[in-house]
């Protein structure tokens, strides 16, 4: 089982804010039954990606407020932290890289005990999913055309599967670094932050212990030009990601009323396995909170990083 070293300088419990919280009865979009995900290539940000068919399943999503310290990367695969960024607007890519990226690197090292961190992409989301789908249908935008806007991802997914994680490892690092880091534990962790207080479409996270590997379905994702911060060479390639089939055993959670002074860390991949031998990865999705459609759209940024523990074995 992987060892997670908690930060001694950062509080693990985020301060509560004014919010509407509690357990939510809603739905999550899952992979349609009977479809072979290995044959699917999804191009995020295109009209076709918003027209995908889903298995819409009823779920109960529990609020972690008041028990934040009971959730961790090591146990459930996600963790809520209080953390303030000097960057406030997240409009300029260079400013994000110069200000926010070093903050994320420091946070990941302090919280997880990582010896090195390499950020490989980030995505800023500002437009509601419903607004994008409405515009696509009203304008009859072709499936392969770029929409030009990025909204919350309203389907259960994991950004990289094992093969996709290895692709990013190989392409992000030079040969010397790859040789060095391949001998010890490494993984991928996302750091997700609201840009404004979250009133609409919160982020739901599924306890990784409730998702057996057989529930996961590989799909292949190819990011189009100008999608987040993916570089031109990566945009031409397909990367393995994971979706999931619906299951009543999935245990979904969220943190109500998140503010810009809070972040969620999500374990996307880890070479170390969980105690039961399953993969350490966090299924996640935006979701519709009842009666939130008229509220201010959610704005958020996620920073995706390769994380290395050179003092730990590659498998444990």
Question: Your description of this structure?
Answer:
The chain starts with 23 loop residues before the first strand and ends with a strand. The protein has helices spanning 47-50, 93-112, 129-139, 162-172, 175-181, 232-235, and strands at residues 24-30, 41-42, 55-63, 78-82, 116-125, 157-158, 184-194, 203-206, 216-221, 239-244, 252-254, 262-270, 284-286, 300-313. The longest helix is centred in the first third of the chain and has 20 residues, at 93-112. It is of the alpha+beta class and 316 residues long. InterPro entries: AsaB-like.
SSE diagram, text form:
Elements: E1 24-30, E2 41-42, H1 47-50, E3 55-63, E4 78-82, H2 93-112, E5 116-125, H3 129-139, E6 157-158, H4 162-172, H5 175-181, E7 184-194, E8 203-206, E9 216-221, H6 232-235, E10 239-244, E11 252-254, E12 262-270, E13 284-286, E14 300-313
Parallel strand pairs: 2-9, 3-11
Antiparallel strand pairs: 1-3, 4-12, 5-14, 6-10, 7-12, 7-14, 8-11, 8-13, 9-10
Task: Give keywords.
globular, 18% helix, 29% strand, 5-stranded antiparallel beta sheet, disordered N terminus, 316 residues, 5-stranded mixed beta sheet, alpha+beta, 6 helices
Number of DSSP helical runs: 6
Which range does the strand content fall in? 25-35%
**Terminal Cα span:** 5 Å
According to DSSP, the number of beta strands is 14
The mean pLDDT is 88
Give the proportion of residues in helices: 10-25%
Task: Show unreliable segments.
Answer: 1-19, 229-235
Structural class: alpha+beta
Q: What radius of gyration results from the CA coordinates?
A: 18 Å
Largest sheet: 5 strands, mixed
Q: Strand order across the biggest sheet?
A: 1-3-11-8-13
Can you write the helix and strand succession as a string?
A: EEHEEHEHEHHEEEHEEEEE
Number of self-contained structural domains? 1
- Silhouette: globular
């Amino acid at each position: 089982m992987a060892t997670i070293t908690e930060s001694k300088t950062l509080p693990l419990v985020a301060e509560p804010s004014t919010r509407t919280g509690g357990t939510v009865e809603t739905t999550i979009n899952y992979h349609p039954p009977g479809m072979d995900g290995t044959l699917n290539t999804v191009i995020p940000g295109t009209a076709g990606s918003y027209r995908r068919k889903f298995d819409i399943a009823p779920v109960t999503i529990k609020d972690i407020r008041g028990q934040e310290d009971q959730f961790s990367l090591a146990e459930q695969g996600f963790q809520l932290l209080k953390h303030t960024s000097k960057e406030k607007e997240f409009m300029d890519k260079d400013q994000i890289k110069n200000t926010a990226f070093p903050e994320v690197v420091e946070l990941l090292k302090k919280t997880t005990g990582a010896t090195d961190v390499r950020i490989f992409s980030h995505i800023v989301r500002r437009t509601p999913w419903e607004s994008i789908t409405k515009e696509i249908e009203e304008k009859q935008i072709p499936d392969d055309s770029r929409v030009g806007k990025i909204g919350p991802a309203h389907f259960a997914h994991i950004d990289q599967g094992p093969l996709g994680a290895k692709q990013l490892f190989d392409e992000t690092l030079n040969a010397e670094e790859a040789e060095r880091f391949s001998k010890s534990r490494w993984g991928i962790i996302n750091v997700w932050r609201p840009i404004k207080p979250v009133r609409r479409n919160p982020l739901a996270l599924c306890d990784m212990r409730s998702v057996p590997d057989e529930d996961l379905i590989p799909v292949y994702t190819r990011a189009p030009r100008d999608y987040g911060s993916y570089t031109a060479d990566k945009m031409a390639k397909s990367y393995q990601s994971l979706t999931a089939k619906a299951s009543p055993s999935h245990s979904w959670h969220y943190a109500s009323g998140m503010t810009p002074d809070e972040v969620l860390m999500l374990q996307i991949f880890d070479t170390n396995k969980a105690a039961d031998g399953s993969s350490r990865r966090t299924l996640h999705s935006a979701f519709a909170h009842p009666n939130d459609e008229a509220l201010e759209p959610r704005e958020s940024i996620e920073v995706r990083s390769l994380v290395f523990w050179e003092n730990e074995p590659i498998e444990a």
